[in-house]
Design goal:
Elements lengths: L2 H13 L2 H20 L8 E2 H5 L2 H20 L4 H6 L1 H7 L4 H23 L1 H9 L3 E2 L2 H28 L3 H31 L11 H11 L1 H13 L9 H28 L3
Parallel strand pairs: 1-2
Helix pairs in contact: 1-7, 2-4, 2-7, 2-8, 4-7, 4-9, 4-10, 7-9, 7-13, 9-10, 9-12, 9-13, 10-11, 11-12, 12-13
GO cellular component, one term: plasma membrane
Pfam families: ABC2_membrane_2
Protein name: ABC transporter
């Protein structure tokens, strides 16, 4: 299984990137600042789960910065080596094209998981020394792992696109397009659509209700599926509450985002002329 050798080398290359170091540092500082600033009213206490599930941490930071960091880590994973000529050398060794694609997914996934894990260490210290906060270690570690899975999903999307792209310029354009589609534009489109469908709008030929369309749009976006799973986890109702079907669907959608883009990218990459 030579993909492990590709993954090991790719991880080492990725973590040396100045962009990765800079964005990781920014992530650490912003999450730490948010953990410090989200304070309860005088005389009250707040849980670490409430801090993690706040709009500041979840929406303004995690689902905004983690996709960006993942795309920066992975958008040149394949096409960068293709343009430099090192991909020919890599494939001259006992590596198949599948080894290259999935090895790079694994290597870049580890490269994104590392700064995310480190990124939540300092906020944990802030929460521990900034009473009154009830710190839940298990939930905090679990949320960190879920955040890493969100990053892995965007790494898989970027590596798949990088494998299919014929130039770095197209890979950059694809990464920018993916980010704007799933982060700022999705919410900008979903909000007026929610108002429209909530007032009974929508084509009569569509075999779905307005609420079903909105749920589908929420699930398709990796950040939307992440929010569904992470919210339920922090509330202690993951796979046990009244929204089990939605939570299972969101989990499966994250798995699909991790598996399908690299497979599609590999289909293009198999036929690519190096």
């Amino acid at each position: 299984m030579t993909w492990t050798a590709v993954a090991r080398k790719d991880f080492q290359d990725a973590i040396r990137s100045r962009w990765v170091a800079g964005l990781s540092t920014l992530f650490v500082l912003l999450v730490s600042a948010a953990a410090y600033l989200v304070r309860p009213a005088p005389g009250e206490t707040i849980s670490s789960n409430a801090v993690l599930n706040s709009l500041v941490v979840r929406d303004a930071l995690v689902t905004t910065l983690v996709p960006l960091l993942a795309l920066v880590v992975a958008y040149k994973a394949v096409v960068g080596e293709r343009e430099s000529g090192s991909l020919k050398l890599l494939l001259s060794l006992p590596h198949s094209r599948a080894d290259v694609v999935f090895g790079k997914v694994a290597g870049r996934a580890a490269a994104i998981a590392a700064p995310i894990s480190v990124g939540f260490l300092l906020p944990a210290v802030v929460l521990l020394v900034a009473p009154p906060v009830n710190f839940d270690v298990v939930s905090y570690v679990g949320y960190t792992l879920l955040t890493a899975i969100l990053g892995v999903a965007f790494v898989a999307i970027a590596v798949g696109f990088s494998a299919a792209a014929s130039s770095s310029r197209r890979a950059v354009a694809g990464a920018i397009g993916i980010y704007f589609l799933f982060v700022p534009l999705w919410g900008a489109v979903r909000f007026p659509l929610q108002l429209y469908l909530g007032m009974g709008g929508g084509p009569s030929w569509l075999p779905l209700t307005g609420q079903q369309v909105l749920r589908m749009l929420r699930l398709i976006n990796p950040t939307g599926s992440f929010k569904i799973v992470s919210n339920a986890f922090l509330e202690g109702s993951l796979y046990t509450g009244g929204q089990v079907n939605m939570q299972v669907s969101a989990t499966l959608m994250l798995v699909l985002w991790i598996l399908v883009p690299p497979l599609l990218g590999l289909l293009w990459f198999r036929e690519a002329d190096l």
